[in-house]
Every structure is written in C-alpha cells, then in structure tokens.
Specification:
single chain, 138 residues, alpha/beta, Rossmann fold, five-stranded parallel sheet
Length: 138
C-alpha cells in the first residue's frame, strides 16, 4: 500500500509531540520496514528542513535527521504538470492541493495526516494516523 505522509506526521516524531508522536512513529516504522510505501514530495522535504531548523540550530544534526527520514520514505518529484493540476483542485490551500496532486500521480492509496479536513476535496482519501493503524494494522 502506498501512502502520502503529510509533513505534520514527520514533525510529530522529530519534535516528539507527545499526543501525536506514538501513532506517527508507527506510520514511519511501517514505511521503514516496507510494510507500506511512505511517500513525501520534494517540497515536503524542504518544509521539514525549514520547520526543524527553527528548533535545531546544529546544522550537521539537522542534515543527519533529514537524511535519516529519506531512508524511511520515498520522495516524489514535483512536476510542472502537478502544479497546473493542483490549481484545478477545489482546495483552498495550494500546498495541500499540490501534495494531493502528487499523490494522485504516484497512485497513492491514502494521505495520512492529522489535518484530514484540509484534504476533504482531495482526489485521494485522507485518514488520521490512528484510524489508518486501526483499519489496516490492528
């Protein structure tokens, strides 16, 4: 099963957001163990680097963490056609629309996000981490 892993899932783990980190970590472990194929977009990688960089001032450590993440998930390129198609989606947040469009192109089954409401009009269904785990792995 191929899933798009939203930025908030990865940030939950790396910032140890106690309420969310356990389920998010399980999602990343499933991807790491190849039980699912976790996918992020190229632009997600830059977003994660920027967000983590606000809290981690050691650039060597920051690069190490992001490189580790890249061994866990696959990166989908963002194509010019993705940008054009994302503008056609009935979604208010362009970044979410682009993420959803890339997921559609790579034939992802789900978007795993804590902000599923942002993906109501996505061409791919969005599911929260706990719901995904309960539906497929419990």
């Amino acid at each position: 099963m191929k899933v798009m892993v939203d930025t908030n899932i990865i940030i939950d783990v790396y910032q140890n957001r106690t309420s969310f980190a356990p389920a998010s970590a399980k999602i990343l472990k499933l991807s790491e163990s190849k039980k699912i194929t976790g996918v992020v977009t190229a632009s997600t990688v830059t977003d994660i680097y920027f967000i983590l960089g606000r809290h981690i001032k050691d650039h060597a450590l920051l690069k190490t963490l992001v490189k580790k993440m890249l061994t866990t998930v696959t990166v989908a390129d963002v194509l010019a056609s993705d940008i054009t198609e994302a503008f056609k989606l009935p979604m208010d947040d362009f970044e979410d629309a682009l993420f959803a469009q890339c997921g559609k192109r790579v034939k992802a089954d789900y978007i795993i996000s804590r902000n599923t409401v942002d993906f109501i009009h996505s061409p791919i269904p969005a599911i929260e981490p706990d719901d995904f785990l309960n539906k497929f792995f419990i």
